[in-house]
TrEMBL record:
Official protein name in the record: PA2169 family four-helix-bundle protein
Signal sequence extent: none
DUF2383 domain sequence ranges: 6-115
Classification of source organism: Bacteria, Pseudomonadati, Pseudomonadota, Betaproteobacteria, Nitrosomonadales
NCBIfam families cross-referenced by the UniProt entry: PA2169 family four-helix-bundle protein
């Protein structure tokens, strides 16, 4: 099993990655004009934010200092969404594709964390969050598929 400091570091890495997801959904909401899609992205951002706060509470309970920032990679990804949306006139499909790509990164981070021998109570939280990320990913993919079909008939 990993030591106490390593658990805090792993949780902080997940917080950072999750904050990227939270900000990514918020950024995606800013780049669509469809009210339903905007609401979808904002609800997902809020749900991810709740997960972030739970992870931060775990870090605090372990005596650590939780991170409160996104990663450089996440910031760059959001800037890519900005650029791509601008170039494609806020194309919903482009924003959904980039959002799905961001969720793929988050899935990988959580799966990697679960490969480590975490304490059972921490592992349970990470596993529960992974299930939520999978749901988010599948929802984004489903919505993207709907927009793909809709644009095929335009």
């Amino acid at each position: 099993m990993v030591d106490h400091k390593d658990v805090i570091a792993i949780l902080n890495a997940l917080i950072e990655a999750s904050k990227d997801g939270e900000a990514g959904f918020r950024s995606s909401a800013e780049h669509v004009d469809d009210v339903r899609l905007k609401d979808f992205f904002l609800r997902r951002s809020k749900a991810v934010g709740e997960s972030v706060r739970e992870l931060q509470a775990l870090v605090t309970a372990l005596g650590g200092v939780p991170v409160d920032a996104t990663s450089i990679g996440g910031t760059l990804h959001r800037r890519w969404i900005d650029i791509k949306a601008a170039l494609t006139a806020n194309d919903h499909l482009a924003v959904l594709n980039e959002t799905e790509r961001g969720e793929n990164v988050l899935l990988a981070a959580y799966r990697e964390a679960l490969e480590i021998d975490l304490p059972p109570e921490i592992r349970a939280v990470v596993l529960r969050h992974l299930q939520g990320i999978k749901r988010n990913h599948n929802l984004v993919k489903h919505v993207r598929d709907i927009y793909t079909v809709e644009t095929a008939f335009d």
